[in-house]
Amino acid sequence: MNSLERVSCVLEHKIPDRVPVALHNFLMTGRFIGCSDLSVMLQDGDLMAESQIKAWEYFQHDVIQIENGVCALAQALGCEVIYPKNQPPHVVKTVLDDLNAVEKLKLPDPEKTFPLNQVVKATRIISRELGKKVFLVGRADQGPMALALTIYGVEKFLLDITDPDKEERIKYLLDFCGRCNVIYGLAHGKAGAHATCIGGVGLSLISPAMYQKYEFPFQTKYVSEIKKQRMKAFIHICGKEDAILNDMVNTGADSLELDPLTHPLPAKRAARGKTTLLGFIDPVEVANGTPESVKEKSREMIAALGPDGGFILSPGCALPIDTPLENVKALVDAAKEYGGYHMV
């Protein structure tokens, strides 16, 4: 099996030759092209593509995740974004001052609006080079609630969702943000990505009840719209999400990207036969550990989550820019050494 076949097999709830590997390594790929300045690389589609391709040539992982951070849609909608040299971009000024001004926001064109056009360009180049043998995820940025928090402001949003008089305006904003995710995700698909992914807020900021009311419906709608176009739809949520695992599965997402704060065994029970789990390796461990510790943690996760398929080994979130190459290589090697289904 090549990587595309291996990942596709897992997503279809079948058993591949071994557990596949994703890396979530976009921040650290610049070293493969001699570019240590993220402010340059993450705004240039050619550089993003070249760095990802070179990193794949080195690591031989199964999934390439294409993004430039979590601010692309916010920037495309008018937020002020800063690109530091050694850190991911971040928003420094929101664009929406009042919920009644949502109608003034215009859906961005991913082929023309910066920086979406550069990330989609990277997807197109990577697909041309590797799309027939590697599984490509063109990430559609922050999901509806996370994007709404960013463009409106976290404090204002969380206060307003407690006001019954503002409920319809909040839902209008969430629906708008969800439409942004869909058009961006489908642009990646048109460029050659096999899947797209959104980031959720989860229980680090909201309660399970708020998740069910304000995040779940719009995640579900996003998944439905993406799958109508024969793409795979992924959802990423950092944090301890045990209390909403069944809800996340019920979105219909093809894969749930989770970090080690969510307990792997309940996640395996909830996901079995319904969706594929991706992640569960602590990116801090990969960044600060040793090749031996990374390989051992990977072996443990493969043993817990690999049986009967449905698992892609990966860091639970983005690897830091200075993550040692040998530690990342150890994660990939662990899947090849311990992930064969005659071993699990």
Helix fraction by DSSP (H/I, runs of at least 4): 40-55%
Mass-distribution shape: globular
Largest sheet: 7 strands, parallel
Q: Give me the secondary-structure category.
A: alpha/beta
Quick tags:
344 residues; alpha/beta; TIM Barrel; two-stranded antiparallel ribbon; 9 strands
Please give the structural blueprint.
Blueprint: H1 3-11, H2 38-41, H3 45-59, E1 63-66, H4 72-76, E2 80-82, E3 90-93, H5 116-130, E4 135-142, H6 144-152, H7 154-160, H8 167-191, E5 195-199, H9 208-228, E6 232-237, H10 245-250, E7 255-258, H11 264-271, E8 276-281, H12 283-288, H13 291-305, E9 311-315, H14 325-338
Parallel strand pairs: 1-4, 4-5, 5-6, 6-7, 7-8, 8-9
Antiparallel strand pairs: 2-3
Account of the 3D structure:
The protein has a domain at 20-258: TIM Barrel, CATH 3.20.20. It has 14 helices and nine strands. It has helices at residues 3-11, 38-41, 45-59, 72-76, 116-130, 144-152, 154-160, 167-191, 208-228, 245-250, 264-271, 283-288, 291-305, 325-338, and strands at 63-66, 80-82, 90-93, 135-142, 195-199, 232-237, 255-258, 276-281, 311-315. It has a seven-stranded parallel sheet. A two-stranded antiparallel ribbon has the order 2-3.
